[in-house]
Amino acid sequence: MQNKAKGRRKFMAKMGLGTLALGLGNAGAYAFAPKNKITKNNSINIGFITDIHHGYCSDALDRLDVFIKEASSRKLDFIVQGGDFCYATEEAQECMDLWNTYKGEKYHVLGNHDMDKVTKKEAMDFFGMEKNYYSFDKGDFHFVVMDGNYIMKNGKYEDYGNANFYIEQQNRSLVNPEQIEWLKQDLEKTDKQTIIISHQAFDEIWDGWSSPSRFAVRKVIDDANNRTDYQKVIACFCGHHHVDDHSFINNVHYFQMNSASYFYVGEGYGSDGSRAMYEDSIFAFLSLDPSGQISIEGKQSQFVQPTPMEKGHPDAPRLSASISDRNVEFKQRG
């Protein structure tokens, strides 16, 4: 997200990937080997953090440390970070090393700023990723991780790489056709209820920076749900936008997960340059209950002063330095 010309929001970062990569599910998920078998009808518990922006935010490592320590104190099935984690450079090794201190399963989503200084392939190699999009099963649920980091250039889809995505919005944050087709087939292969995780949003976010591919992705979701006698895709989670929001489209929940660090407000509005920093590290713990409930336990904080409201930022009333606690229902499989 973010546009150099307009000085959008978010800058830098890269996602980490656990050292031990293991192929699970239809296209290979990347995580440590499962420690516990999940029996049917047990809830799946997840730690979720996104947009740490190591290399751009000076305290990114401290914010990650808070998450890792709390995640390690809980009984979770896995943790996931939603992109914009750290640069795939030597300087980022400290971030990767900290991420890898978590002893359980770890999953990763590619973010746009993960390719600010490197190619997508170089970023994937740094994180140990075999695939840029993939799926895996956990308990009664199926998880799909997508890659919305493509640009349209001369009529062709190209990978993000070396900050080539600072172009007009309609030609970036795209999902390539091969991935759309893969998603169709992946959903056809599973009979489990499914959660999709991406960096960019597939719903209609108020700031106008949703993925231009959202309509194609939502058509695949709707088609999959209409082909079965139960709700196959129940929810989508994303980062990227640094907001705390939720929408409900065609019986599918779409969750905007806030950044761990800040909201990009532009020069003249931030507490730290162009960033409106959060006082605390922001992340969430998710619980997926097969009986039909998604619970989000979010972290609440506040903006470092001077706040966007104090600075007179036009979107200040919409901004949040928290992830809201939420309890929503989905149509369970009969």
Automatic annotation (TrEMBL):
GO molecular function, a single term: hydrolase activity
Entry protein name: Calcineurin-like phosphoesterase family protein
Keywords annotated in UniProt: Signal
Keyword Signal attributed: yes
Signal peptide: 1-31
Residue intervals of the Calcineurin-like phosphoesterase domain: 45-243
Span list, region Disordered: 303-334
Pfam families linked to this entry: Metallophos (PF00149)
SUPFAM superfamilies according to UniProt: Metallo-dependent phosphatases
The species this protein was found in: Arenibacter echinorum
